[in-house]
Amino acid sequence: MAARVLDCPQCGAPVTFRSSIAVFAVCEHCRSMVVLRGADAELMGVMAALPPDLSPFQIGTRGEWKGRGFEIVGRLRVEWEEGSWNEWCIFYDAKTTGWLAEAQGLLMISFATPLSEQLPAVISFYAPNLRLQLNGAPWTVTDAKTVKYRAAEGELPFTAPPDESRVSVDLIDAKGGFASIEIDGKELDLFSGEYAQFTALNLTNLRKVPGWDGEIEQEKGKTSALSCPSCGAAVNLRAAGQSMSAVCGSCGAIIDTATPQLQVIQEADAAVRKLAPVLPIGQRGKLLGIDCEVIGFVSRTEDSVTWFEYLLFNPWLGFQWLVSFQGHWTIVDRLTSMPVEIANKVYFAGRTYKLFAKGTATVGGVLGEFYWKVQRGEQAEVADFIDPPEIVSGETYPGLAEVTWSRGKYITPKEIEEAFGVKDLAAPEGVYLNQPNPFAKKWREIRWPFLLSLPILFFVWAFTIPREAKLLEAPFVFERTRSTAQSPGNFLAATMETPQTLTSAHFQLDGNQRVEIEANAGVDNGWLDLDMDLVNAKTNETIPAPVEISYYHGYDSDGSWTEGSQNASVALPAVPAGEYFLTVEPSADAKINRLPFTVRVKSGGVFFGNCIVVLLLVLFYPIMLLWRRYLREKERWSESDFSPYTTS
Amino acid sequence: MMRHPIYLALCLASTVYLGLANARGWSLGHTIGAPFRMISPTRTFNHK
Question: Which of A7, A72, A359, A472 could share a disulfide with A302, CB 3.0–4.6 Å?
């Protein structure tokens, strides 16, 4: 880059034009606006002083974007009625001009882009949430406002006279893209690019931030001081340049800090002294690995439910919110890409968030400073969508052409205590809308072992079933035999039934096996008891195997009925290998004198009781977790008007 | 770090038990009653 150095027409100091496309520069010495006309420098007036700020950028800061280097060569301070921000002019890849916008703690890099569509050059057309096609791609308007240049420094590719109004329309897409339509009269320019992460820009030659960089630690807590126009008390700005309003800690007046005039936005409110946030303004901490300072506190109310929001500031990484309600805490970041909202659901970054609450939130008490002009009584239409532990919230502000989306994540009071060095924070009450469900977490942890164990159990069960083998089929006949006995000296004789013992052939059983003995008899409205024993032919050890066959049938007022069966069986577990035979002692209904029956012996098969008990053991814990997860979710959603657990 | 080790051990033990019970013809009652059988007398068949 060949720099051109000209003399300032006002003071003669050198004015450097580093980039070849610069036409406008501000003299570092006298702040004269110098316009390049051919080879000459012309005086245009005197540029207003830039307000003090904590921006880590400065002219000369270098960085990388998409693999190519850039250098900051100029800065515009752009303001509108609700605030102001920095537009850093970058000389990108040593050949083109781009813009690094630094607003509300967010960074956006954009470049002038030709626009193929015809769009109206009127601000009223660009309502928030309006969907537009820009060069064939879908974009959504987030806000539209009238802006003007307040001050500038360095060099710029166009003249930037202060107080000249133009319209700026911001748009985002679903992929983290950022675009801005600039309307100046009837001219319409498109700048498109992306949101950028500070850490991804590989920045060097950054400005030391007072109060944050170790080398200038003595300025800690005294970033910028102003005098309250209402009571005269000193108000220290902790995020100067980014704060658009600040609350006087003495009288409670809300001061407009976006302009040097320091007007009172809202009169003093003595109730400010009663506000006692558990994290005081100015408290520094390291939350989730990020150094931050509490710079603002606001209470918001919706339908008599009040919650508290703490604004955290880090000069390099911007703003975050900490939301606190009944002992529950959520850390919230603004989203830089547009979630997709369809039918009470929001889709973002691969997650699905369900609508939980919708309503109007009203600002109550405020303390500290904010990146917009906060007011007590300020209202916002808020919609909360949840996928615990995350929450996505959309806010629209009546009368303000802006919609913002943010994403929060639940954090525990312990993390807050550790981060800010505070103690004894209130314990969480009830189930909060994005509080993680511990049973859902446990279920996720065991889900795969559980689902894997089911097919494994099935295969183990199926492949270990022993084959059934027929060992014996023996036909027997029950015959009632009676004998008459007469005792000595007694003339009366007694008729007694003689027990019948039947014995089967021997059979061989291999290995420890389940043995099933099945009996079949043609009993008809009667019963047959078979007192059987499986006898080891070698050891004479017996295993009892009694069965009863009973079968009854008939007719009653309800029709025909049957009870029992002509078959009965008994299964014997783990019968040792060996040679066996069966002994049978039959007894029968009194009306049966003779009845043939068959006994079959087979080995193999399984006891289904094992399978059932094992399944119960394996299923119990997951089912218990699912049930408790359901109860917890039901409790959570009982606070919602959009509960899937109630039928309307 | 292994989470829910007791449940995982239960799944493993259940699988092993089911395989052994099938292969060796155990019933649940037989398994639970094993300690009691060790102290009860064995019946023998009396050839008359």
Answer: A359
